[in-house]
Amino acid sequence: MRRLLILLCITVSFSAHAQLSYYNSDAYWTNFCLQANCIKPALTDTCLVFVSNRHFNRDSLRFVDEFVDTTGLKYFVLQKQAEKWNVFQVPTLTDAMQLMPEKRDVVVYAEGMGKIFTANVERALLMRSQYNVNVVMFDYASINTTYRPSRNFRFARSNARLSAPQYFRLLQLIQQARQDKEDWVEHVKVSTFCHSMGNIIFMEMMKHQPYDQLNKTPFIDNVVLNAACVPSKHHKEWIERIRFANKIYINYNRSDWQLKGAHLLTLASQLGEKPKRSRAANANYINFHDQGGRQHSYFLNFPQNDYRMTQEMRDYFAQLFSGNGAVLEEEKTLAKKQPGALETVN
């Protein structure tokens, strides 16, 4: 087991540093142009919304840094033209959403460990382009380019926990927009998607924030907890507190090699690896073992990777991100064998 742990750490370290050297280079950062004024993007533009709790330095090439700022949120609209990104800071989430060129279903996306701002942009762009949704990326500092892998693992987990109050605030803003019938959420489905360590943020919110304020009425269509890098033990307790979503999905894969590494590092089985028998009554559990292989980020097709989702997997995530109910074919078969196994209790 010790040899496997060392091998996993070395593999993750090389992979992370190779990506960071690319996404954090001066040449890559020059593709992001912070703008003084904000204009309505053209209908043909590709746009993203980022809600960030990083420190903001307008005069720096790397205008958002690698540490969390728990004093408040910053709102950005990113507009892609050719290979360049125009970045506009705006006062509120509503201001940001009103600048989106098209009205689409919305996915509030929180990533896992190892993402600087520019890497999160790539992930958000892939989700937008592959699923035809408007992406609101919750952008927090999940890696520091000067730290070693073991320290970064602790750094990312700590920052995810620290980010829970800001994520809670973001959901409050969406809840208020629903109540006020703001145009950007009218006749639109809104789902949350947390991947890997991004689930620490959600878990901490449900454990330590006044979640009852969110539970007044469902305003989120789907809560999706994907490859969750949180303990499987006792997950039922905090998930069953969620009443602000119409449906909850927990995607897991017992062959996920990154979660196996997290299991060894934390000495705890991870929710996205293998849920315990005591499961939340209000959640759907979807097993990706047969289709995900050893993959961790099995919800996107990455240009640089050989791995490709099956059409069935893509259809599944497309349904989730459009706010609809969805199961994989194998889960439908399982449901026939075990009546009620995949029912959702709202």
TrEMBL record:
Superkingdom of this protein's organism: Bacteria
One Pfam short name: DUF900
Signal peptide: 1-18
UniProt KW Signal keyword: yes
Alphabetized UniProt keyword annotations: Hydrolase, Signal
GO molecular function annotations of the record: hydrolase activity
Protein name in the entry: Alpha/beta hydrolase family protein DUF900
Database matches in InterPro entries: AB_hydrolase_fold, DUF900_hydrolase
Species: Chitinophaga ginsengisoli
Keyword Ribosomal protein in record: no
